[in-house]
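Worked example 2:
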Amino acid sequence: MKRPHAGSKFTHFAKWASRATGRPVTFIGAVLVIGLWAVSGPIFGFSNTWQLVINTCTTMVTFLMVFLIQNTQNRDTEALQIKLEELDEEELDIIRQDYIRLAKQARTRIKGKRS
């Protein structure tokens, strides 16, 4: 399967979309749209069409967001993997020992709270 290169139109769009959808103003906009839809219920008599509008819109947004989230996660995982590969064995041993020490401290604290 051919992957889009870093400068592809899809990559640029995916980065832009993930930044845009993660902003508070986007969330507020979504809440306002749902609020307007709810307020319009009495105007349309809470008809099946009125319900179908929000169901269809939310389904389409959810479907597209799944792919956007997966794309973002793939990019993040790839960047993390590249950074991990840059670490040499000595650095990894130091990090491993630090985490072993932290785990022992956590177990000691948990045992202290139980007593």
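The mean pLDDT is 90. Residues 9-87 form one domain.
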